[in-house]
Specification:
It is a single chain. This protein has 42 residues and is mainly α. It is built from 2 helices and no strands. The longest helix is centred in the N-terminal third of the chain and has 19 residues. It comes from Sphingobium cupriresistens LL01.
């Protein structure tokens, strides 16, 4: 079971990275999530 879980996590991470294309894109995505959370709290 742990192999299938590791494979699932790796697949999700690769999909997320492919969607962002670059490390900078990942940073922008994380920043936008943080802003959305901050706006929701206020």
């Amino acid at each position: 079971m742990s192999k299938s879980l590791a494979l699932l996590i790796a697949s999700l991470l690769l999909t997320a990275l492919a969607a962002c294309n670059t490390v900078q894109g990942v940073g922008r995505d994380i920043e936008s999530v943080g802003r959305a959370g901050k706006d929701a709290m206020h």
